[in-house]
């Protein structure tokens, strides 16, 4: 499946994997993907995320970082 991703999408998955490792997580979660999207400022997904909210990309990154460090249990 990885071979069906665009180069940019593969890059985001690699960044997400790095984010998961940074937080000592043994899974790749949506919080890691969102952090990776924010790290790749050339990505269309990043532009969409930052235009859908009133908070800055930096603040969004900080909030996601907090969520990644202290994940909430699923309900």
TrEMBL record:
- Might you name a Gene Ontology BP term for this protein? proteolysis
InterPro entries the record matches: Clp_N_dom_sf, Clp_R_N
Q: Which GO terms describe its molecular function?
A: peptidase activity
Q: Which UniProt keywords apply?
A: Hydrolase, Protease, Repeat
According to the entry, every stretch annotated as the Clp R domain falls at: 2-75
Gene3D superfamilies named in the record = Clp, N-terminal domain
Q: What is this protein called?
A: Clp protease N-terminal domain-containing protein
- Species of provenance: Rhodococcus jostii
């Amino acid at each position: 499946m990885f071979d069906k991703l665009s180069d940019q999408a593969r890059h985001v998955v690699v960044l997400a994997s790095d984010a998961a490792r940074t937080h000592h997580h043994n899974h790749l979660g949506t919080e890691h993907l969102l952090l990776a999207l924010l790290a790749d400022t050339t990505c269309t997904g990043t532009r969409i995320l930052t235009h859908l909210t009133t908070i800055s990309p930096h603040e969004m990154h900080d909030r996601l970082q907090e969520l990644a460090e202290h994940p909430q249990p699923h309900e």
